[in-house]
Amino acid sequence: xxxxxxxxxxxxxxxxxxxxxxxxPLQLDFxxxxxxxxxxxLKREDLQIVRSFKLRGAYYAISQLPLLKKESGITCxxxxxxxxxxxxxxxxxxxxxxxxxxxxxxxxxxxxxxFFGGKYVEIKLVGESFDDCLETAQHYxxxxxxxxxxxxxxxxxxxxxxxxxxxxxxxxxLPIDYVIxxxxxxxxxxxxxxxxxxxxxQTKIVGVEPSGAASMxxxxxxxxxxxxxxxxxxxxxxxxxxxxxxxxEQSRIFLEKMILVSEDQVCSTILEMYTKLGIVVEPAGALxxxxxxxxKSNIIGKNIxxxxxxxxxxxxxxxxxxxxxLRYENLQ
Length: 332
Description:
Layout: H1 7-17, E1 26-28, H2 30-36, E2 39-44, H3 54-63, H4 67-72, E3 74-77, H5 81-93, E4 97-101, H6 107-117, E5 121-125, H7 130-143, E6 147-148, H8 155-171, E7 178-182, H9 187-199, E8 204-210, H10 215-222, H11 245-254, E9 255-261, H12 263-277, H13 287-295, E10 303-308, H14 318-331
Parallel strand pairs: 2-10, 3-4, 3-6, 4-5, 7-8, 7-10, 8-9
Antiparallel strand pairs: 1-2
Helix pairs in contact: 1-8, 3-5, 3-8, 5-6, 8-9, 9-11, 12-14
């Protein structure tokens, strides 16, 4: 039986990461605050070194490996952002890394992984989805006696992601009513939610998933992690067929509510953030802001924090994003 990850473990990750990661800004957004008649603060993890929060968990998990395991090299499977965090870590710690990515990964993410890892990483493109890719990576890891760095289902990864919550609490001058967190495999929400649950239990934690890949919602209904038979891969940073075991066990303790948003609605948010706020987000990075629409009647006058999880958007997807947004706008 897993319990919520202790804040002391997140604090230890915070101290390790302090000289490595960027302490990202917590910004009051005037446009969204006016639109929803509340105070909307954006936690800008899209401004993190690898343009997503994933560097935190990857670096902390790798830094905790014993020396011999570091020397044997590491592997990971990722649709992109975790891979960039792992690649950056491999280069800064001078560790060999083999990075498995699905063949459907946007080319922008593949070139970024190569850029951050340089000569320390080798990329292998395998499988149609993250889950196919994961299986191959784990098999390779065993065969070559390397260490696999999970994208979300690991206590050290969760502790690293939880440092986002420490920064939010450090920078926030007001009591926080809601923290809205995007969910893919559950690494971010289990870390952030655990820290708030212990330090600021009055703050409500809301999770957001794309409706085509709602693995946390499915787990909460079933009472255990279940594998979705089919997922929509459009929100690639959150398209995970099965929520992590640790992530589910921890999140169910503190999750106030889950919100599902359509992939098309996410596209409207991406365009709105670009035109109104001048912020470039990837689909997963737009989830928390999209959720504001579903919460508007409950948040008037409240202090809300939306975690903008990543900004690795491939410009080649712009046409599809526009098309999907138009489809959504016509439904309203």
